[in-house]
TrEMBL record:
Pfam families: BPD_transp_1 (PF00528), MalF_P2 (PF14785). This is Maltose/maltodextrin transport system permease protein. The gene is malF. PANTHER family: MALTOSE/MALTODEXTRIN TRANSPORT SYSTEM PERMEASE PROTEIN MALF, MALTOSE_MALTODEXTRIN TRANSPORT SYSTEM PERMEASE PROTEIN MALF. Residues 266-489 form the ABC transmembrane type-1 domain. The lineage of its organism: Bacteria, Pseudomonadati, Pseudomonadota, Betaproteobacteria, Burkholderiales. It comes from Ideonella aquatica. Keywords: Cell inner membrane, Cell membrane, Membrane, Sugar transport, Transmembrane, Transmembrane helix, Transport. The chain crosses the membrane at residues 7-26, 32-51, 58-76, 265-293, 305-325, 356-377, 411-432, 468-490.
Length: 500
């Protein structure tokens, strides 16, 4: 068989396996995932099995990775932003209704013990011990019946009783089983040793509603809020997912109690990222220029010591600084108290907390720019400095006229990437202040040191009841803001390059 025929045969087998997988996913009621798997699998088979383009065989993994890990999460997040998806609204309406219909009260005081027996033919039946001392038996167990099995008086010996291990193995058969006692009571599986009466808490009603048997109250599905709601406004838990349109965005920008904290957090996020890059780059660049001075002794030692903050894992440095800035026991306040008689409340005062964050992040970030600027300065021809020395220029003139213009252009993209990184620097905020101190009188938790990503995290996973829909809307806004800022930075960079 030729290689071409081997390839076609392998492609045919792959297509058959793909169709089997997609069919199984359709039967499991996952049409969206079935279509996605069909598209990706078909395109892979066409590219590697039938396609003759060598370039696409190299490009295909990258394109698929971009779709799966970038485009899909982005689109999925945007879609969630238009729903009420939260800890209280996780399920679909059908699943939430089915869950509530399964809820029941178990009358264990009326439970009947049972044993399972296997006869000589290998058939299994259950034997119950009634309260009057009689023994009742079910018919031979087969597939799960649609109606309860009647219990009849036991005639003869039922056969060998099954041990606990065999009962556990039989559990999946017994769980859906229901039996009817002599008095008409329906008993359901309540454990490995007994069946008991189950009283449903809710019954199905017309229009997808639920009725409470005890009171007769009707709970209709409210598809605006995503809950089964009674006429008096009482809601059942869990709720279900519904499409709320632009509701999350209207809440974010239209509600003054949310718009105020969001605007302050956005301004602080931009200031935090910008000032961190400015201070880190200034300190790192200055140290790089100083350490490039050939007359300076022990330059290698100084460079090694100044690089140490970058070698220590960031989260360790953050936790160390958290202890150093402790108001009562930290070394920083101990020194300030000894010298000036003050103990600043670094974690309680918003301005001091923000100052502390900038100090810590500058400490963590300046070694990065020290290394970058050192490498860029080393690449500058020494002839320029020699000519400048002959002309009698000062070190400041050398820096302003030679060093800075030659390193700023290759440094600009790295400054932009550092700004983007700090714009979403969740680890620093989470470990150092956790966004606190909080704003007062807000509907959702918001801290004065929160940046947008930590604010979103708190809404989605902590204090606000896991409001994933609102968090997704904020994430979408963050993406749009970062995209706009990146485009502006790119335009400014291109404009500066055009002027040169």
């Amino acid at each position: 068989m030729t290689p071409r025929r081997w390839t076609l045969a392998a492609s045919l087998l792959a297509e058959m396996a793909l169709l089997w997988l997609v069919t199984g996913m359709m039967r499991a009621d996952n049409p969206v995932w079935a279509v996605a798997v069909l598209v990706l699998g078909s395109s892979a088979i066409a590219t590697y099995g039938l396609g003759r383009s060598l370039a696409w065989r190299y490009l295909y993994p990258g394109v698929v990775a971009m779709i799966v890990f970038i485009a899909f999460p982005l689109l999925y997040t945007v879609q969630i932003g238009f729903t009420n998806y939260s800890a209280n609204n996780l399920l679909t309406e059908e699943r939430a209704r089915a869950y509530l219909l399964e809820q029941a009260e178990v009358a264990m005081e009326r439970a009947l013990p049972y044993t399972a027996h296997r006869d000589a033919g290998g058939q299994v039946r259950l034997v119950f011990s009634a309260t009057d001392g009689s023994r009742l038996a079910t018919p031979v167990l087969g597939e799960a019946p649609s109606t309860p099995l009647p219990l009849q008086a036991l005639a003869g010996e039922p056969g060998e009783a099954l041990d606990l291990r065999a009962l556990i193995a039989l559990r999946e058969t017994l769980r859906p089983l229901k039996v009817t006692g002599p008095d008409g009571t329906v008993l359901a599986y309540a454990g490995l040793r007994e069946f008991a009466p189950f009283t449903p808490l809710w019954t199905a009603a017309d229009g997808g509603a639920l009725r409470q048997p005890v009171t007769g109250t009707l709970y209709a599905p409210d598809r605006d809020s995503g809950f089964f709601t009674a006429p008096d406004g009482t809601r059942l838990q869990p709720g279900f997912q519904v499409n709320v349109g632009w509701g999350n965005y209207q809440r974010l920008f239209g509600d003054p109690d949310m718009r105020g904290p969001f605007g302050s957090i956005f301004i602080w996020t931009v200031a935090f990222a910008g000032l961190t890059v400015l201070f880190s780059a200034a300190i790192g660049g200055t140290l790089a220029v100083v350490l490039n001075w050939e007359a300076l002794k022990y330059r290698t030692l100084y460079r090694t010591l100044l690089f140490l903050p970058y070698a220590v894992p960031g989260f360790i440095s953050i936790l160390v600084f958290k202890g150093l800035f402790n108001q009562n026991f930290g070394e920083i306040n101990a020194i300030l108290d000894h010298l000036f008689g003050i103990k600043p409340a670094w974690f309680a005062d918003p301005a001091l907390a923000r100052t502390m964050i900038l100090i810590v992040n500058t400490w963590l970030g300046y070694p990065y720019f020290l290394v970058l600027c050192t490498g860029l300065i080393k690449a500058i021809p020494s002839d320029l400095y020699e000519a400048s020395a002959i002309a009698g220029a000062s070190p400041w003139v050398n820096f302003r006229r030679i060093t800075l213009p030659l390193i700023i252009r290759p440094l600009t993209p790295l400054l932009i990437s550092a700004f983007a990184f700090n714009f979403n620097n969740f680890v620093l905020i989470s470990l150092l202040t956790d966004g606190r101190p909080d704003y007062l009188n807000t509907k959702l938790p918001a801290g004065t040191t929160d940046i947008l990503v930590s604010y979103t995290y708190r809404i989605a996973f902590t204090d606000a009841g896991a409001n994933f829909g609102l968090a997704a809307a904020i994430s979408t806004v963050i993406f749009a803001l970062v995209a706009v800022l990146s485009l502006l930075n790119l335009k400014l960079t291109q404009a500066q390059e055009g002027k040169r």
